[in-house]
Amino acid sequence: MNEKPLGNFIAYKRRHADLSGYDVPDRRRRTPGLTRDEVAAMAHVSVDWLARIEQGRPGVSPSADALLDITRALHFDNSEIEYVFNLVQLMPPAQLHTEVSSATLALIDARVPAPAFIMDHQLTVMATNQSFEKLYGAWAGQEPLTRNWVWRTFNSQYFRDSLADWTLYARYVVGVFRKIYSESPEDEFLFAVYDAVKTDAVFASTWDSLQVSDFQTQHLMLENPTLGDLYLIENILEIPGTNQFVVFEDPGDADSEAKLSQLNQA
Questions:
Q1: 78: domain CATH number?
Q2: C-alpha to C-alpha distance for 37 and 236, rounded to whole angstroms
Q3: 50 within some domain
Q4: Does residue 64 sit in the same domain as residue 119?
């Protein structure tokens, strides 16, 4: 653990805190920023313990919950939270962003005729573009569970029937889900996803084999009843500072691009 860098960073942020964002007495202060007493009270920790953290005393290590309370008290942004958790070699908690920015929506709309969508850190679809809706249906307004990427992979009959190598793709999804779940093992929603798909034979066998995966480029061959065969290349990228993911399913050949364009003109 890097006690000195952690303590220096917390002390610096406390001393340079903008008091206009805090409900603290408006009085003349001998030093700028917040006092240790004020931060300790907001973070529900003792003043002495906070002092030892700031001083970088060897062996004084905050728990994940205590560190998170301090970051909230000092109004850290996501990058600052990740930084201090990295210093103590702890996994930062996932920050749930329930809104998709207009810039991100414009990004997926600009990919038309390619299908594209946004997922949150629980792999639940938050927004889709026109091409996605025409190819897979409109998901907006549905319950979070039925908008979840993992749930859909195993419960969408259209997807199971149309994806030429559904089993291979499903095993990849399970591996990604295991990694995401490991980051928030107490998350009730992620457990609900697991509980909803655990009896599927492909899910169960892959889960039992302890497969773990990062996001990887996927080559999808879809058999669409109207358009015929479609070759799509799927890539998933994280949107910095949001714990959201953007998924692009770009046409892999000229024929697929022409069919997707035709779909969007219908």
A1: 1.10.260.40
A2: 44
A3: yes
A4: no
User: What CATH number is associated with residue 177?
Assistant: 3.30.450.180
d(Cα 165, Cα 200) in Å, to the nearest integer? 16
Distance CA 181, CA 121 (A): 10
pTM above the 0.85 mark? no
Residue pair 92/118 in contact by the 8 Å Cβ criterion: no
* Domain termination site, one of 87, 112, 139: 87
User: Which tokens sit at 266?
Assistant: 């219908």
Count of the separate structural domains present in the chain: 2
Q: Residue 253: how many CA atoms within 13 Å on its side-chain side?
A: 9
The Cα–Cα gap between 30 and 45 comes to 23
What is the mean pLDDT of each successive set of 10 residues along the chain, which is 266 residues long?
80 91 80 90 94 88 89 88 83 68 95 96 95 91 94 95 97 95 87 97 96 95 94 95 92 97 88
- Cα pseudo-dihedral 134, 136, 137, 140, rounded to 10: -110
CA dihedral (34, 75, 45, 48) positive or negative:
negative
187 and 143 both lie in a single domain:
yes
